[in-house]
Every structure is written in structure tokens, then in C-alpha cells.
Write a structure and sequence with these properties.
- With about 240 residues, the chain is α+β, with helices and mostly antiparallel strands.
- The protein has 3 domains: about 55 residues; about 100 residues, SH3 type barrels (Roll), CATH 2.30.30; about 70 residues, Beta-lactamase Inhibitory Protein, Chain:B, domain 1 (2-Layer Sandwich).
- It is built from 6 helices and 14 strands.
- The strands form 3 sheets. Strands 2, 3, 4, 6, 7, 8 and 9 form a 7-stranded antiparallel beta sheet that branches.
- α5 runs parallel beside α6.
- The longest helix is centred in the N-terminal third of the chain and has 45 residues.
- The termini are far apart.
């Protein structure tokens, strides 16, 4: 006969396994729902007949919800969506420590990154939260970049907002060769749209009150700030940004 204590332990173990299975099923349902939404948006765009082919592109996402699912990032290379936004830090694989006190740099525009591991680390500030860090190698050294955080067992991971998991050159292969040449040279040319500019020179900050007809965007551009004025989503004026220097 099983003792009452043993029975209680078995019940707790079964409840724990049920909770894990329920969470996993919920995640799978959510992921499939998001995939269906993406396909529906593509169909809607085609039905509306958007003239910009970029609207038909629906990059794949991983929807990570914990450390294990975030390690899907190690299964393929990634490309940075917005350059000069995300700071990375030296990482010591022997001690598994992130040197938060020493910024190593900013991930560049559509920089290709090969993530080798995903770990948690405690930053000097915000001790209530553990940072979720993606570890990668660059120029023979190991670095780590924050991709989310964990607090009280709950994870918030935003790697889908940070990285493409498909080659942008294939996703946007409809762009003309001269646009891709400008992107590779980290230059914005007249006629390029806002997404193409982000690919070329990284994140931008639009002026307050900008409209879709005319928008002014300031780009840090890795220490060489530029300001671009768009007319109808096409770059019309490109000049050094004295306000950002």
C-alpha cells in the first residue's frame, strides 16, 4: 500500500506534468494562430492590390516563450533588423559571465549573427530581473546581447523583433540591384524607401508630427548621423544631421 505522503507526491507530480503539457499546447496553438494571421495578411494585401511588394513579405518567427524555446535561435543564422539599436557585451564562456560593465558595441544593420547559446545573466541594475542573453562569436571573441528577461519564472523574449531568421536578401530579392548595392555600402540613395534605409544605416527616429506624405527621420548611423526627408515613403533629401552629432 502506498502511504498518504507518497500519494500526495504522485498527485503533485501529475499536476506539474499537466501544467507543463497545458502550457506547451497553448504555445503551439498560439504559434499556429500567428502563422495563420500572417498568411491571411498576405492574402488581404494581394486582394487590396498594394503596389509595394514589401507588403507581401511575411518573415518567419520563432515565438520563444522560455529559455529552451529561445535556443531555437542556435539552429540557423540571424540577421539584425534594426542596426545600431542593440548593445552587446563581452562574454566569458568559462565562467558563463556577461561583462555588463564593458559595452563591446552595437549590432550593425542586417548584420549576420550566428547564435551559439542562450543563457540568463544578472545585470548590475534591475536585480529583480535576469536578462536572457544570446551568445554569439565575432572576430574570434564571444559576446552576448540581451533578447529578453526572466522575472519570477516568467519570460519575456523579444528576439522576433530583433532578428530575421531568413536571409533578408531572399526575403526582399525583388529589390533592384542598385538598392542592394547601396544597402551593402551603408548608404541611403534618393528613391529608397524607409525599410531600405533601415537596412542600410540602421534605426531611425521620426520627427513628431510626421505624416505618410512627408516624414523626417533622424538616423544615428553608427556615429555618422544623417537626416532623411521622405516624400511618399521615398527618400527625397539626405544630409548630415547636425542635431544628432
Amino acid at each position: 500500500m502506498l502511504s498518504s505522503e507518497t500519494k500526495q507526491r504522485i498527485r503533485l507530480a501529475l499536476w506539474f506534468l499537466l501544467a507543463i503539457a497545458t502550457a506547451r499546447a497553448g504555445y503551439i496553438f498560439y504559434q499556429r494562430h500567428q502563422d495563420r494571421v500572417a498568411v491571411e495578411k498576405q492574402h488581404q494585401a494581394r486582394n487590396v492590390g498594394y503596389s509595394n511588394p514589401d507588403y507581401y513579405v511575411s518573415p518567419k518567427k520563432l515565438y520563444p516563450y522560455d529559455l529552451k524555446s529561445a535556443r531555437q535561435l542556435t539552429q540557423q543564422p540571424e540577421w539584425v533588423k534594426e542596426g545600431y539599436r542593440y548593445t552587446y557585451y563581452p562574454y566569458d564562456p568559462a565562467s558563463k559571465r556577461v561583462q555588463f560593465g564593458h559595452d563591446a558595441g552595437l549590432l550593425g544593420p542586417i548584420e549576420k549573427v550566428s547564435i551559439t547559446d542562450v543563457v540568463t545573466a544578472t545585470a548590475p541594475t534591475g536585480a529583480q530581473k535576469r536578462q536572457v542573453m544570446a551568445v554569439f562569436q565575432k572576430d574570434g571573441n564571444k559576446y552576448a546581447v540581451p533578447i529578453g528577461y526572466e522575472a519570477e519564472g516568467e519570460y519575456k523574449i523579444y528576439s522576433d523583433e530583433m532578428f530575421y531568421i531568413e536571409d533578408p536578401h531572399q526575403l526582399y530579392k525583388h529589390w533592384p540591384a542598385d538598392v542592394w548595392q547601396a544597402v551593402e555600402q551603408h548608404q541611403v540613395k534618393p528613391g529608397m524607401n524607409e525599410m531600405q534605409a533601415v537596412f542600410a544605416i540602421g534605426m531611425g527616429r521620426p520627427d513628431a508630427g510626421s505624416s505618410s506624405d512627408e516624414k523626417t527621420v533622424h538616423y544615428p548611423n553608427g556615429g555618422k548621423p544623417l537626416v532623411v526627408v521622405y516624400h511618399g515613403d521615398k527618400a527625397a533629401e539626405i544630409k548630415p544631421d547636425s542635431a544628432g552629432s
